[in-house]
Each structure stands twice: as structure tokens, then as C-alpha cells.
Design brief:
The chain contains 29 helices and 21 strands. The protein has 710 residues and is α+β, with helices and mostly antiparallel strands. Among the domains are: 192-334, Beta Polymerase, domain 2 (2-Layer Sandwich), CATH 3.30.460; 380-473, Beta-grasp domain (Ubiquitin-like (UB roll)); 631-706, Alpha-Beta Plaits. The protein is elongated, with a radius of gyration of 39 Å. 35% of the residues are buried. Bound molecules: manganese (II) ion (MN). The site of manganese (II) ion (MN) has 4 residues, from loops.
Length: 710
């Protein structure tokens, strides 16, 4: 209840209403849930909200704090929160929920840095990070109810990721408390030793600290400066670090307590500074002017260590109230001092404020570094993603899963057959974003990378590895096989490879398929990286579109084939062939295509390959009346089992006294349906139609239709 009273005193009534609504909403949602301590779960979001109020955050942040575990831990949905609280609060809650899913566990130093970057980049709105820090702070405070193993894991993660992040944002109050709590769980003996002994040592020297405080207070009075002077024990973790890093004993550390002087203006800071140096001798190298040159996290203060008359050292920090507030609240101080300014919620607007402060304070280089470090990857050229085990992989911006696979190992890249991002299948050219968890699916049966991959990958190293693979496969044998496959298939379709594989045609083809040479193309057909048809379709396409008009008569007079069953209007003695792509049969509407060196090719009028043909090259053709010619037609039959399809079609074909010329079946990986192409020998269109009708009557057949390309 107390927290509701605080909300009412801190925020304007309208904002307070929203906070209280969030309080009630979350309380209801978490009803009956308990924490590890056995307490009501709801006290956790309350404490988090309280910490954020202490830090001076705005009312939206506090509302979001009440709601921060609601989506993750209760049946409440995004839509519910959007409806009740609007987009700003929803975005904050979603941000925290998203970060919840990252597990940092124990990492090496550089990895920890990557995690901090991911964290910041994913948060987008810096308030999300501050909520997360407050969440972690309260969890660390109530850590004693968890198993020792979990305590240590959480403390290590906090020490490596969260405490430095709080430091980076300048929220030293949170940073120090987090660090001390980490020490308590990671080095319990040391912690125990420090707490008991420091108190003792402070008791011994208490009179001394008091004496110095009094003397400095006198100085202020003499100079008519209003301010505060007090002694402040340094936080345990910083003492621990000093002892560990410099190999000192507790007795050798003289600045267990710092004297802090807080005044109203910068001028007064320097005045007090001068007076102190006048009274006591400063220790060389220990005078720090962080007002003239603030620390990268915008910490400003004057520091000096002096020697007293009795030979004792002590540290004095002099700063204004505003500096003191910034030092403890860091970036969070922003909301306190700029409360009245309405600002857009974008990260950039929020960060521009820091930029202003820092440029004004003159630390331009540092400010850039600072900005870059807290903005993480958003504007940098890398994208950090996770392996399923939680390792961080750095890739160039806009990288794809293939870049990821080759980054892991060439073998992983070469055998990649699919990819899951955040547990969902995605295409190989998917653009990865920061924080994605990427899982590469490999197969021993993979034929290796495809040439298209060269266009997908963004990292030079992946490109090199793919090329290496192709180089290895560039064996003479593969080149030979590929070439004869391509020649054979071209011939089957009625083309001469030499005609269609011109230099320009190859240039166009390689721009699409990334072949460096014709041999590369043959080789990749040879070992199966691309299919013959993939190449051939493009070549034929180019050929059709780019054929110059020809004088027809020149080519066709020598033909001996006249009994093909088709007459060409206005011409006799012309070589007539049936197009392999659509296999016309008598009864079909047909049209002739005047092809170079091959006379007239007869296509079905609806053949898709004729779509782009120039009118001048099409010629009217007709079925001759009397005809005993035999034709091949293609049909595609879809079912669930190959045996069923074959049995059904074979029996229909037999009943109609037709003949199966060839079959070719495959399974559609996506639908799991079996698809079988048949080439049927028959006399005319009617026979074909009755065959299709007959097959269709079989209930085991899903579909059957005539193919344009058989
Ligand atoms: Mn929480």
C-alpha cells in the first residue's frame, strides 16, 4: 500500500492513475503465484517498480515494471496490455520479456562484452534496460532462497553483464549494490571477512573520519559556502578488487572511506578543492579533475587524496548536487532533471541527450565511444547472433544463415540443407538480426552448396569457402558428364547446344547463376549442384528472345519429312517437328514456330514457351486429315503412393490400348505427395482426354492433368 501513496506524491494524478491501474492489473494476474521465498509473487514487481521510482524514472517505466513479468508468467496477452495500457507501456513490457529469454551463463571476457551489446541493441528503448537492471537488482537481493548452484550462476552473470552495464549507464548506485551482492555469493568467505573487519577498522578510525569531516565543514563555513560533508565507505567489491589486483591486505588500503563534499556550484567545487590542498598535502598522481574531463559514463567530480598532519591518507570527492545525483543515477537522472520535457520514445532522442551533455562537457572522443558502446550494434556493421548452445557469433550486417553456417565451419556450410531461426524454419536468404538463435540443419546427403549461394552470402569468408568447394569439384570428369548431360537434354528439346550456348547467352546465365566459366557450369551440372533444366531453361529463354529474324525458305527446302501429319500454311516440303515442351497431339489447337535451322516446330497454342515469341515467327499449321502418326503426350499424376499411381495408370492405359513410353516419379518434400510424370503414346487428343477422365475416376488419385512440359 505504501507504494501507492508514493506514486500519488511523485507523479501527476493522471499518470499516477495509470500506475495504480498497472498495480491492480498485475496483482490480479499474479494472484496465487509464489516466489522461491514463499512470499507472494507480486511483491517482486512491486519492489522493481519501487527501485525505479527511487531512480527517478517516469511513470510509464514504473507501470511497465508492475507488468514486467505478466506476459511471461501469466495468461495475460500482449493484446490485453495494449488494450489497457497502450503502446508505450506494451513496448516496454515486451522489451523486458524479450531480454528475459537470453541466458548469458558463464562467459569469457570478450563474450561478456558481446552479450552486453546484444542486450543493449535488443532493448532499443533504454528504459527497458533500466527496468531489467532493477529486476536483476531485486532478484539478487532475494537470491538466498535459490540453490547454491543457481545463486552462483546468477551472480556470475550479474557480475559479467549487468553490473558493467549499470556502470556504463552511470547508475553507480545499482552497479555497486549488484557488485556487492555478487561478491556475497561468489566469494562468501571473503565477503564475510570484509564485512566484519572493515567495520572493526572503521570503528578504530572513526574519530579520525569525523575529525576530517569537521575540519572540511569548517572550511565551508569560513568561505560562506552552503553544502554537505560526510564520510562514505567504499563499496565492498571495489575494496575486494583492489586487494586482489594489487595484492594488498585490508590494512594497506587507506581509502576505505572517502570524504564527500557536496556544494551548489562548479565554482564552489574548485574553491573547496583549492582550500583542501592548501590545508593538506595532495598525493601526486591522485588529483583527478572529472569536471573538466568527465568519465565516459558522464561521471563528473573532483577527486584528490591528501596526507593529513598525522601521516594518514584519505580521499576527498568534491561535486555539485547535480553531479552527485548523476553519479548515482547516471542515465536514469535524465528523467529526473528533464521531467517536464515531453520526448519521443526513440533510442536516438534519448541518447541525443547524453550526446549533448557530453559534447558540452568537452569529452567528444569519449562520448562517441560511450554512445557506440551503449548503442551496441544498432548502427555498427556487425550483427551478433547465438548458436543453439548460446555462443555468440559475430557476422557482417545483413548476414544470412549461410554466413552463419560457414562461420561455424566449411563442412557445416557445405552440408547445410535448411535453417531454423528462433526455432522456426526460414529460407536460407533470411536476414539475421541481433539476438537471433540460429540452428543449421545439415545432411550427409547434401550435394554441397549451390551457385545461388554466392549471391546470398554477405561475408567474404563464406564466399571464399563456397568457391573453394566448387574448385574441388571442378574435376574433369564432372565437366565431361555435365557437358554431355546438357547436350543430351538440349537435343531432346530440339536444340543444338552450340546454337543456344553463345557467349552472350553464357554471360547472361552467369550473371544469374554466378558461374565463372563454362567449365564451372558443366562441372556443377556434373556433380548435381544445379540441374540440367535450371541451366537449359535460361539458355533457351535467352535464345528465343534474342533470335534475329531469318529468311525462312533458305533452311527448309531440303527436308525429307513430309508425312508428319501437319500441314504448314503456304509451304510444302518443310521440315516439321513436334515441340518437346508441349507434345501436341491431333485435336490440339496448334501453331507453328519458325525455328532457325530446324524448320517449323509445332506447339500447342497454349504452350507457355510461345508467350514471348515474335508474331513474325509464328505460322499457321493444321492437322492433316488422314494420319496414322503416333504422338507422345505428357500427363502428371498426383497421389500418395507411387505403386498406386503406377497400377492405376497402367490399367487405364491398357484398357484404352495405349502405351506408356516413360515414367518419372518424385516426392514433393513440402506436401509429401507423390508426383509421377508419364509419357503416353497415343493417336489423338480424344484418346488423351479419355485417358485423363479414366484415371481421374480412381479415388486413390489426387489429381491428374496434361503437362505443358513433358
Ligand atoms: Mn522479474
Amino acid at each position: 500500500m505504501e507504494i501507492l501513496e508514493r506514486i500519488k506524491t511523485i507523479y501527476p494524478s493522471k499518470e499516477a492513475e495509470v500506475c495504480i491501474k498497472a498495480y491492480d492489473f498485475a496483482k490480479k494476474a499474479h494472484e496465487n503465484q509464489k516466489r522461491a521465498s514463499g512470499e507472494e509473487y507480486f511483491i517482486h514487481p512491486c519492489f522493481v517498480a519501487g527501485i525505479l521510482m527511487d531512480l527517478g524514472l517516469d511513470s510509464a517505466t514504473v507501470s511497465a515494471a508492475f507488468l514486467h513479468d505478466v506476459i511471461e508468467d501469466t495468461p495475460v496477452s500482449e493484446g490485453d496490455i495494449k488494450k489497457e495500457f497502450g503502446d508505450e507501456i506494451l513496448e516496454l513490457v515486451l522489451g523486458v520479456t524479450k531480454l528475459e529469454k537470453i541466458e548469458f551463463t558463464s562467459r569469457e571476457e570478450e563474450q561478456a562484452e558481446n552479450f552486453r551489446k546484444i542486450f543493449v541493441a535488443m532493448a532499443k528503448d533504454i528504459r527497458v534496460i533500466i527496468i531489467k537492471l532493477a529486476d536483476r537488482l531485486h532478484n539478487m537481493r532475494s537470491l538466498n532462497f535459490l540453490s547454491i548452484e543457481r545463486q552462483q550462476r546468477m551472480a556470475r552473470e550479474t557480475l559479467e553483464v549487468y553490473a558493467p552495464l549499470a556502470g556504463r549507464l552511470g547508475i553507480s548506485r545499482v552497479k555497486c549494490e549488484l557488485e556487492d551482492l555478487c561478491l556475497k555469493y561468489l566469494e562468501p568467505d571473503f565477503y564475510e571477512y570484509l564485512t566484519t573487519n572493515i567495520d572493526e577498522r572503521l570503528k578504530e578510525g572513526e574519530g579520525f573520519v569525523e575529525k576530517v569531516v569537521n575540519e572540511v565543514s569548517e572550511m565551508l563555513k569560513e568561505s560562506k559556502i552552503v553544502g554537505e560533508v560526510f564520510g562514505r565507505r567504499k563499496h565492498l567489491y571495489s575494496i575486494y578488487k583492489k586487494m586482489k589486483e594489487r595484492g594488498k591486505t585490508l590494512e594497506q588500503i587507506y581509502d576505505l572511506v572517502a570524504i564527500r563534499v557536496i556544494v551548489n556550484s562548479v565554482d564552489e567545487c574548485y574553491e573547496v578543492f583549492g582550500k583542501i590542498h592548501h590545508r593538506w598535502k595532495p598525493v601526486p598522481g591522485r588529483i583527478k579533475d572529472y569536471i573538466a574531463t568527465p568519465k565516459p559514463n558522464m561521471y563528473s567530480s573532483l577527486h584528490t587524496t591528501v596526507v593529513t598532519n598525522f601521516g594518514k591518507f584519505f580521499e576527498i570527492q568534491i561535486r555539485t548536487y547535480e553531479m552527485n545525483h548523476s553519479a548515482e543515477y547516471g542515465i536514469a537522472a535524465h528523467w529526473k532533471y528533464k521531467e517536464n520535457k515531453k520526448e519521443a520514445g526513440s533510442l536516438d532522442t534519448r541518447l541525443s541527450w547524453i550526446r549533448e551533455v557530453m559534447e558540452w562537457q568537452g569529452g567528444l572522443k569519449d562520448s562517441r565511444e560511450f554512445l557506440n558502446s551503449i548503442k551496441g550494434d544498432i548502427y555498427s556493421s556487425e550483427v551478433l547472433v547465438f548458436t543453439p548452445k548460446g555462443d555468440v557469433i559475430s557476422l557482417p550486417k545483413e548476414a544470412t544463415p549461410l554466413d552463419f553456417a560457414y562461420n561455424i565451419h566449411s563442412a557445416v556450410g557445405n552440408r547445410c540443407v535448411g535453417v531454423k531461426v528462433n526455432n522456426k524454419m526460414v529460407p536460407l536468404n533470411y536476414t539475421l538480426s541481433v539476438g537471433d538463435i540460429v540452428e543449421i540443419i545439415t545432411s550427409q546427403n547434401s550435394k554441397g552448396p549451390s551457385w545461388d549461394w554466392l549471391k546470398i552470402v554477405k561475408s567474404p569468408s563464406a564466399r571464399v569457402k563456397i568457391r573453394q568447394f566448387f574448385k574441388k569439384e571442378m574435376k574433369e570428369e564432372n565437366v565431361k558428364t555435365g557437358k554431355s548431360m546438357l547436350e543430351g537434354e538440349a537435343k531432346r528439346r530440339g536444340y543444338n547446344l552450340n546454337d543456344i550456348l553463345t557467349e552472350e547467352a553464357f554471360l547472361v546465365l552467369s550473371s544469374k547463376m554466378s558461374f565463372n566459366s563454362q567449365d564451372e557450369m558443366y562441372a556443377s551440372i556434373g556433380y548435381g549442384a544445379v540441374t540440367v533444366n535450371q541451366v537449359l531453361v535460361k539458355l533457351i529463354d535467352y535464345y528465343r528472345k534474342n533470335q534475329p529474324q531469318q529468311e525462312i525458305t533458305k533452311f527448309y527446302t531440303t527436308s525429307k519429312h513430309q508425312s508428319s501429319g501437319v500441314t504448314v500454311k503456304g509451304m510444302q516440303g518443310i521440315l516439321v517437328r513436334f515441340a518437346g515442351c508441349c507434345n501436341p497431339v491431333p485435336g490440339d489447337d496448334i501453331v507453328g514456330f519458325i525455328s532457325r535451322g530446324h524448320g517449323v516446330t509445332v506447339h500447342r497454342k497454349d504452350c507457355p514457351n510461345l508467350k514471348n515469341a515474335e508474331d513474325g515467327r509464328l505460322i499457321e499449321v493444321n492437322w492433316a486429315n488422314k494420319d496414322s502418326s503416333i504422338y507422345n503426350a505428357g500427363i502428371k499424376v498426383i497421389g500418395t503412393s507411387q505403386i498406386e499411381i503406377l497400377t492405376s495408370v497402367a490399367s487405364c492405359v491398357a484398357q484404352l490400348k495405349l502405351e506408356i513410353v516413360s515414367t518419372n516419379g518424385r516426392v514433393d518434400n513440402r506436401t509429401k505427395q507423390v508426383i509421377v510424370d508419364f509419357n503416353i503414346r497415343l493417336n489423338d487428343k480424344h484418346e488423351l482426354e479419355s485417358l485423363i477422365t479414366k484415371i481421374r475416376q480412381d479415388s486413390k488419385i489426387i489429381d491428374v492433368y496434361r503437362t505443358a512440359n513433358s
